[in-house]
Specification:
single chain; mainly beta; three-stranded antiparallel sheet; 7 strands; elongated
Length: 94
């Protein structure tokens, strides 16, 4: 059990790539594996699947993000956290 959970050092922004088909709202969960230095070393989809372009955009954004590492009793440790990701078209076509 972590005494301090990992926290992103800055806001993680995921660009909305072009996706074939209608503009929709996509939501999933990602499992982030974070090392003791705050680097995301692996990202796994842990919810509904996304179109490939969206999954790649989310994966790349988190792999490039920095976190303050999780801690146990004041010591930085490897950890994993779940995050929810939502892609929503700014102007969905109706």
């Amino acid at each position: 059990m972590l005494s301090v959970a990992p926290v992103p050092v800055s806001v993680v922004v995921i660009p909305f790539p072009e996706v074939e088909g209608p503009a929709e709202r996509y939501v999933t969960r990602l499992l982030l594996f974070i090392d003791e230095f705050g680097k995301v070393v692996r990202v796994r989809v842990d919810g509904p699947s996304l179109p490939q372009a969206l999954e790649e955009a989310a994966r790349n954004a988190f792999l490039n993000a920095r976190f303050s590492p999780g801690q146990v009793d004041g010591l930085a440790v490897r950890s994993r956290i779940r995050v929810e990701v939502t892609f929503e078209a700014a102007n969905p076509k109706r």
